[in-house]
Design the sequence.
């Protein structure tokens, strides 16, 4: 039934149909907590504040988010299109890296499903901005 709804909604609608309820409920709260943790860490880069920052950055790593991404990407890596379950567990990947774009950390349109190889070895926190020779596609 969900697949039929996705086909009827088209690609843009599909993305919104699959947005997990946890993001609908918690996105604003999580972003606010992340902004606070960033500010506190910038004012005092103590280990305790670093831990708060790390915890705030990882709120998106939720089962509902990953399950929705698995459906949206048909269980394949957004980059190499390998069937993720054949090579690992998969990562919730940020198209624009959360390290450079913390304001997009919890944005559904910025989240992808990636394999450990593409996300860890190749993509990481790379994202070419205009002053770095990017974007890849205009």
Sequence:
């Amino acid at each position: 039934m969900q697949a039929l709804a996705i086909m009827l909604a088209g690609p843009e609608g599909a993305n919104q149909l699959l947005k997990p309820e946890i993001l609908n409920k918690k996105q604003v709260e999580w972003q606010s907590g992340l902004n606070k943790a960033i500010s506190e860490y910038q004012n005092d880069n103590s280990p305790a504040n670093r831990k708060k920052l790390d915890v705030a950055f990882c709120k998106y790593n939720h089962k509902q988010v990953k399950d929705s991404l698995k459906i949206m990407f048909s269980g394949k890596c957004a980059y190499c299109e390998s069937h993720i379950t054949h090579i690992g567990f998969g990562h919730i990947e940020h198209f624009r890296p959360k390290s450079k774009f913390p304001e997009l950390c919890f944005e559904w349109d910025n989240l992808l499903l990636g394999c450990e190889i593409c996300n860890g070895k190749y993509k990481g926190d790379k994202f070419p901005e205009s002053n770095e020779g990017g974007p890849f596609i205009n």
